[in-house]
Design a protein that fits this description.
Shape: elongated
Oligomer: single chain
Distance between the termini: 12 Å
Mean pLDDT: 94
Largest sheet: 4 strands, antiparallel
Number of strands: 4
Helix content: 25-40%
Number of helices: 5
CATH superfamily: GTP cyclohydrolase I, C-terminal domain/NADPH-dependent 7-cyano-7-deazaguanine reductase, N-terminal domain
CATH class: Alpha Beta
Structural class: alpha+beta
Order of helices and strands: HEHEHHHEE
Number of domains: 1
CATH architecture: 2-Layer Sandwich
CATH topology: GTP Cyclohydrolase I, domain 2
Strand content: 25-35%
């Protein structure tokens, strides 16, 4: 598998999107909800947008942020792995995007020991 970083240098990066949602395997997680933090890096060729100063040749990061938040908020699931996959599919639905890296942080994860972060990170690309 080719490393996406070596194939594409241009990216749009969204860091620290905060979303309140009801994901988790425990009943209290589903009932009470908790905060999730999502980071997204979408790889795409930004040269056409820059050359023509044309928003239509790129992905509108404001719209993308709203779509990512909506993807995280909908339909509670057990695993943040599933949430990450859902976000990746949302980003890849934008035609200019070649690949995406998604990190879903669960800062209030029900873990019995002190921790700084719990997260899953996935990278997906177009077939």
């Amino acid at each position: 598998m080719t490393d996406i970083h070596s194939r594409r240098a241009d990216s749009i990066v969204l860091t620290g999107l905060r979303v309140r949602a009801n994901h988790g395997v425990f009943d209290f997680e589903r009932a009470d909800g908790q905060d999730f933090v999502v980071d997204v890096t979408a790889w795409l060729d930004l040269a056409p947008a820059a050359a023509g100063d044309d928003l239509a040749a790129t992905v509108h990061y404001g719209d993308l942020a709203e779509e990512v938040v909506a993807a995280v908020e909908r339909d509670p699931v057990d695993l943040i792995e599933t949430v990450a996959e859902r976000v990746a599919s949302t980003v890849l639905a934008h035609e200019p995007v070649d690949a995406v890296e998604v990190t879903v942080h669960k800062p209030q994860a029900p873990i019995s020991v002190p921790f700084g972060d719990v997260a899953v990170r996935i990278t997906r690309s177009r077939p």
